[in-house]
Amino acid sequence: MSEFLGVAFSPYVCPANQLWNSYSQQDIVRMLEIMEPYFNKISTYSMGYDGYPPTTPWNQVNSNCHIVGAAAQLNQLRGKIAFEVSQGIYQQTNQQQQIDMALQQAEIDAAFAAASLANTSYPNTVTSFVFTNEYVSDADKVNAVTQMIVANKEKAHNFGIKVGVRSNTFGEIANPNSAYYKELKGLIQHCDFIQCNLYPPSHSVTPQDGVNAVGQAFYQIKTAVSDVNPQCEVMIGETGWPSEGVSFNNTDNNVVNLLAYYEAIDKWAFENLVIAYFFEAFDEPWKSHHNSQNSAEAHYGIWYLNDQGEYKQKKV
Fold first, then answer.
1. Contact by Cβ (8 Å): 218, 236
2. What is the CATH number of domain 5-313?
3. What is the pLDDT of residues 187-203, one digit of tens each?
4. Handedness of CA 98, 20, 168, 108 (dihedral sign)
5. Cα gap 20→23, rounded to integer Å
6. Alpha carbon 84 to chain centroid distance?
7. How many helices (H) and strands (E) does the chain have?
8. 3-state SS assignment for residue 85
9. Of the candidates 307, 301, 259, 281, which has an alpha carbon nearest to the alpha carbon of residue 33?
10. pTM of the full structure
């Protein structure tokens, strides 16, 4: 088990016709047990309010709401931290991609409620809140997320929980000419950590080439962040290599390369003492229907659910 490599996790492992709220806490415990020999850290994406009225009870929304409870249940069963969770708080937006304040507050309140219950069941199950995913892409959006961090940081710290942001745009902090450089600086000043989504650049020839490029990008960001807020920990929130399909970076996608990239980024994280989250635990077949041009999006998982309802690990 890697000391530094965790895994990104959502429970939606069935085809597109599976209901988003159809995975129970016990279903998720089963998935965690599959992951347990390999990982002890997971990073999630939401509390599940997308598509639900803000008045919906937090434990009756999409099945992401059950992840921290499942982790706490397994931790209690093992009598130790089998999994620590970075709980995602997804951006709840309207058609103009502006924050829907009522829905966003429901998502935030749900994270606090779920974390409180989980950490009462087994202390330190939830260690951090990740406010939004790949949302901070212009000045107004950065400012909106900064406001969320500022409004909730003290309360989170009182729960023993750190606060931060996951995004694919943190490279902009190394560019003083960026249109939202000033706003990113303001955000980072308030964060305990940031999670950078970093993937191999386009047409990376080998997985090791991809890891080398990701490492270089990481240290450019880390250096810039240290100048802004030396106490802000820089992590890799997502990185991976799909086993099939066409990906946005046009890599050679097969199981051999996925496993080679997994081993190489694990080694890099250990040698550089950097927490990184591999994308992702399980294939999510629904994503092929959601994004047909990027067909690889469904195939980043280390495991997959076969037609017999069995979880299988990808092997050469």
1. yes
2. 3.20.20.80
3. 999 999 999 999 999 98
4. positive
5. 7
6. 13
7. 8, 10
8. strand
9. 281
10. 0.97
